[in-house]
Amino acid sequence: MATTTSTPEAILDAVGGAENIIHFTHCATRLRFELKDASGIDKAAVEAIPGVMGAVPQSGDRYQIVIGGAVQSVYDEINGLPSMKSQSDSSGSGQSDADVKAAARAKARGKNAYVDAFFEYLSDSFRPLLPVLLGASLIIAGEAIFEAFHLIDTHATNEQKPVALLFVDSMYRSVFYFLPIMVAYNASKKLKIDPWVGTAIMAALLTPEYIFLSDDKLKAKGVTECVHNAAVNSDLCTVHIAGVPLQLNDYGGQVFVPLMMVAILAVVYRGLVRIVPSNVQMVFVPFLSFIIMMPVTAFLIGPLGVWIGTGLGTALFWLNSHAPIVFAILIPMVYPFLVPLGLHWPLNALMLANIASEATHHTDFIQGPMGAWNFACFGATAAVLVWSVRDKDNEMRQTATGALFAGLLGGISEPSLYGIHLRFKRIYPFMLVGCAVGGLVQGIGSMLGGIEGVTTKTFAFTSLLTIPVFNPIWLYGIAVAAAFATSFFLIVTFGYRTKEERAEALAAAGINKADNATASAPAEAAEDPKAGAAAAAAPVEEGDRTAKAPTPKPALVPGAVTEIASPLKATTMELDKVPDPVFSSGAVGQGVGLEPQGDIVVTAPADGTVVVAPSSGHAFGITLDSGVEILIHVGLDTVNLEGRGFDVKVSQGDRVNEGQELVRVDRSVIEQAGYPLTTPVLVTNTASFASVEVVGGDSVEPGQALIKVTAPEA
Question: 706: pLDDT confidence band, cut at 50, 70 and 90?
């Protein structure tokens, strides 16, 4: 087990430590920091951290670090670091929250902090929804495939559809119809107000009671009046409430309305918190928020949001209809510059607004041209992969492989963009040519076919899996293939590095190979004791000097037998009986399950170094001086307790002696939470030994022999 500084620790150090962080969150691929002072961050040093794809400084002391698909785990690990925990539990600099915010605003004057905040608001309102949007789009893609073979008709009325198809439709419709409720929840969380208040206000416009106001029965009575509006090509209905006209809209799928509503709600909510006595805030702040904001949303914000979304969509629809080639080229050409800056979110909002709008026939025409950008991006990544294989550049090969799979199967461009494209200036010109070619194919195809561009009726990640949701599929398929092939061909032909950059990379690769060959001897000795014995026996000549390889650790000496003591009082359980497949399968290592008896006090089974010690206290990894690597996992799923009931006595990097306390555990906390107390004790470097056997009886005491490991014979 490595004891070097971890990626989360290195990132935290790079941004100035926990005390420099005001706000910390993440999106699908990036860590997002709001810092007290970002001026001292070394961008090159950040990008040199293993696992970091790129760094994006922003105005207003905001900073983004691109991680890729592992962003959630890195985010969790950073939050779990002791310094982050202690910072959140203390006052830090001694400034109040208001003081910190005031200082941040003061530093941001004259910069673009408010612009950044706006786009962060959009991003954080949509980001958590991307997985469910992707899931819903794949269901629609499946329906499109079935329709292509004339097995179903998705365009039939609900009365004409079979009940099975209606049920499948409900699976994805739930996401798009209730999208405004989900956006309201996320936006409320972003602005740090009760998210359920924002959710309830938005949900009021989607209730059966509100929808009934547009019912034909009320129209027949003259309660509801409707007129046809040619501008939006639909009937607009109104009803008078207390003499005030209320415009009735279908708010299913709307995104501008919840975004506007929550922004105003935040002001109202915080004002109520200041004036309502604290002892009755739980009741009266939500009550008064409802009384104020539900009418404001229904009468003012809702209609305004619909008109804004409709207006923007109609304007782009006009451009797409009257200048399809210009539109089809413009969209993919601007996206490579919008995405790195996070400025693509307004266009994403417009896509969703188009799908919800009668004026655009519930059809989006932006995602089709956007697909040309995505596939041009993926084509560039595929070309870099070819070059990395050619150059035997393992690091770039791994980066490009992961980014390509994320792109082609998930439609996610950020790993390619930040991991590769923004690092090498030659890529962008070639990629932009691919974008232009893909857009040009769509534009010319639209004019020749007499259609208004490539369209879709859902929000889809532009990947291989979602090609069937676009119409016409043949034109979209040809366009994205052309975009991919163009970028791929140009970069394979001309390269993605300058001659100097490639020479430098090849030289560095040669040095790394030499270094790895030298450093591999100790590692091979640890993994293969036979190799270690051979290395120990063979002297290494260096000029006129002779040196012997390091002697293997005691447990790794050929034929050595080492016993490991029990870390706690417990009854034993065969490993395959442990109710967790990760442990019971032996994937982590061989060992035994323990059922703690009495007070739970976990101790070190032998002298060694703590290499894993999360603040939650639920698990400890120890590299013993003998060479055996041990994992002690206290209970199952106990990480969810976030340290409650765990009194941790050691930290990562600490030296421990046999019998020294690692953690004291409150049994009642785990039992009340409903988690098993079963504690696996595993030898994580099992592969280094000929056998790992349980020698403890049905019950063991701390310090009593529990596991015996035997090294292979020479």
Answer: very high
Report the CATH superfamily, name and number, of domain 7-111. Glucose permease domain IIB (3.30.1360.60)
Residue 60 has pLDDT above 70, yes or no: no
**Residues 6 or more apart whose Cβ sits within 8 Å of residue 148:** 468, 473
pLDDT of 659 strictly over 60: yes
Contact between 630 and 564 (Cβ < 8 Å): yes
- Per DSSP bridges, beta strands 561-565 and 570-573 are unpaired
pLDDT, mean of residues 544-552: 51
**Are the CB atoms for 78 and 84 separated by under 8 Å?**
yes
User: Global pTM?
Assistant: 0.51
CB 543: neighbour CB atoms within 10 A?
Answer: 5
Q: Does 261 have pLDDT greater than 80?
A: yes
Task: Please state the domain extents for the chain.
Answer: 7-111, 180-293, 323-497, 501-552, 556-710
Residues 348-375: pLDDT tens digits? 777 777 777 766 677 888 888 999 999 9
Dihedral pair phi/psi, residue 643, rounded to 5°: 95, -10
Please give the pLDDT value at position 541: 41
Compute the half-sphere exposure of residue 29: CA atoms within 13 Å on the CB side of its CA.
24
Identity of the residue numbered 288: L
Architecture of the domain defined by 556-710:
Distorted Sandwich (2.70)
How wide is the angle at C-alpha 385 spanned by C-alphas 380 and 388, nearest 5°?
125
Residue 17, helix vs strand vs coil: coil
Q: Which DSSP letter does residue 156 get?
A: S
Q: Which residues contact 311 (CB under 8 A, 6 or more apart)?
A: none
What are the residue numbers of the active site? Answer: 27, 633
- Tell me the residue type at 194: D
